[in-house]
């Protein structure tokens, strides 16, 4: 079985037995591997170093009858995430976070239970309209407090709560194009955190700016043959059309 859900922001409680009863069937079915995929903003590799809370939840997930896979969102600690050794899982490159939790790297294609998944994480942060404070500024805490006193909460701290790596490099985007070409530009599912350019235009009514990633994903969507495309980031459960879906708390079975 394979299930997909949206952002969890460091709180995987939706995978509890009460909320996600399908895992009882997973535990009983030993005929194949089982997976739950998180569409970014995983949030359990977030603090400067692993916290007790992060370790608790990763250990909790390791005990589940499924393997947890996630693409990166914009709210991840990319310094820590990219420090994990690169390994391979199901035909694609990953960072192994714990025994049963893996980060699916950008532009990779994975074959899970006979189905192919193109993964491409990242997104532009929408919560930085009050600015980015330099994390190497010795007075960053005072500057943050000043903004808060002014009633400004839409700010982030560089390399502490915001990373430029939220958007892809040319190398990552080329990797995605190259891998799709190897598969004849055909996969079963596309997994992204950011919506495509056309989707974000519909969702935001023109209020959200386009960026290199939304435009890139639009080209991927147009030029790839696929069954379904799943995206997170926008904190809504919504079908844009019959093929493209945005997920948040909802958990959808695809196999």
TrEMBL record:
InterPro entries: Calcineurin-like_PHP, Metallo-depent_PP-like. GO terms for molecular function: hydrolase activity. SUPFAM superfamilies: Metallo-dependent phosphatases. Residues 2-236 form the Calcineurin-like phosphoesterase domain. It comes from the Bacteria. Gene3D superfamilies: 3.60.21.10. This is Calcineurin-like phosphoesterase family protein.
């Amino acid at each position: 079985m394979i299930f997909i859900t949206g952002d969890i922001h460091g709180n995987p409680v939706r995978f509890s037995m009460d909320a996600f009863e399908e895992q009882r069937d997973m535990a009983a079915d030993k005929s194949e591997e089982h997976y739950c995929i998180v569409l970014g903003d995983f949030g359990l590799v977030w603090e400067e170093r692993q916290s007790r809370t992060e370790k608790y939840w990763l250990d909790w997930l390791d005990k589940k009858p499924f393997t947890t896979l996630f693409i990166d969102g914009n709210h991840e600690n990319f310094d820590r995430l990219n420090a994990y050794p690169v390994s391979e899982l199901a035909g694609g490159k990953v960072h192994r976070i714990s025994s049963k939790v893996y980060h699916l790297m950008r532009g990779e294609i994975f074959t899970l239970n006979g189905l192919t998944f193109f993964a491409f994480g990242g997104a532009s942060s929408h919560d930085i309209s009050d600015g980015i404070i330099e994390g190497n500024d010795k007075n960053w805490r005072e500057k943050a407090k000043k903004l808060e006193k002014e009633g400004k909460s839409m700010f982030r701290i560089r390399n502490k709560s915001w990373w430029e790596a939220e958007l892809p490099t040319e190398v990552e985007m080329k990797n995605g194009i190259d891998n799709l070409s190897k598969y004849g530009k055909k996969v079963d599912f596309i997994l992204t955190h950011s919506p495509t350019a056309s989707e974000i235009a519909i969702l935001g009514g023109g209020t959200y700016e386009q960026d290199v990633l939304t435009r890139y994903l639009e080209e991927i969507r147009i030029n790839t043959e696929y069954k379904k495309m799943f995206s997170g980031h926008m904190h809504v459960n919504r079908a844009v059309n019959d093929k493209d879906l945005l997920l948040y708390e909802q958990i959808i079975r695809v196999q």
